[in-house]
Design a protein that fits this description.
By secondary structure, this protein is α+β, with helices and mostly antiparallel strands. It has one domain (about 5-185). Helices cover about 30% and strands about 25% of the residues. The chain has four helices and eight strands. The strands form two sheets. Strands 2-1-3-8 form a four-stranded antiparallel sheet, covered by helices on one side. Strands 4-5-7-6 form a four-stranded antiparallel sheet, with helices on both faces. The chain is globular, with a radius of gyration of 16 Å. It starts with 5 loop residues before the first helix and ends in a 14-residue tail after the last strand.
Length: about 200
């Protein structure tokens, strides 16, 4: 069920972003991206807005969460976070693979097939080893994150580990989203591209 208050939504967003900044590596940056799903001021659809926060600042998760919820509601746009952190703040875009410093998490994006019940997916995640650190309903499925004991700066190993997770959950609609540049919708924000809200 979608959180009903702004405070609850901000808490969900903050908990999610805190995982992405878990190791607080100096000189790395959390990246958030906003997508306008409708034309804005007669400009092209899907105009993008990218914001960056220092991943080693303890206030970043709460500050970024407040910005995300406020921006989503005020401008009716879709908000995403990059799963890996950056080694710089790009002048354009949300950063290419070469801008990736590494990640504090592994992740999967499950677009659950209609024939599979959500409860079966949750049970599979609950019994999977290692157990995910975070699971939330994405609207059409689930996102799951695994907090890493050590910050992973080897991008090839990071993507290989994500690819392994995709293979484990292939029967549950795991997308091929193992790449280091992947973004996921921020919990507590709305999916303005469809009629169904995220949670």
């Amino acid at each position: 069920m979608r959180p009903t208050t702004t405070v609850q939504r901000q808490r969900d967003a903050e908990a999610f972003l805190k995982l992405l900044c878990y190791h607080g590596i100096a000189d790395t940056y959390l990246a958030l991206s906003a997508f306008y799903a409708q034309p804005v001021s007669d400009r092209q659809n899907y105009k993008r807005l990218n914001k960056f926060w220092p991943a080693d600042d303890a206030d970043t998760p709460s500050t970024a969460a407040r910005w995300a919820i406020h921006t989503c509601d005020r401008l009716r746009i879709d908000l995403y976070a990059r799963c890996s952190v950056l080694n710089n703040t790009p002048k354009r875009g949300r950063g290419k693979k070469g801008d990736t410093a590494g990640s504090s998490v592994l992740w999967i994006d499950l677009d659950v097939p209609p024939a599979i019940d959500d409860q079966d997916v949750l049970e599979q995640l609950a019994t999977f080893q290692p157990k995910p650190s975070w699971v939330h309903h994405s609207g059409s499925g689930f996102h799951a994150l695994w907090a890493l004991e050590k910050f992973q700066s080897d991008i090839a190993q990071l993507e290989a580990a994500n690819r392994w997770l995709v293979e484990q959950f292939g029967d549950f609609g795991a997308d091929h989203c193992y790449d280091a540049t992947r973004i996921l919708r921020i919990p507590g924000t709305s999916n303005w591209k469809s009629t169904e809200d995220s949670t």
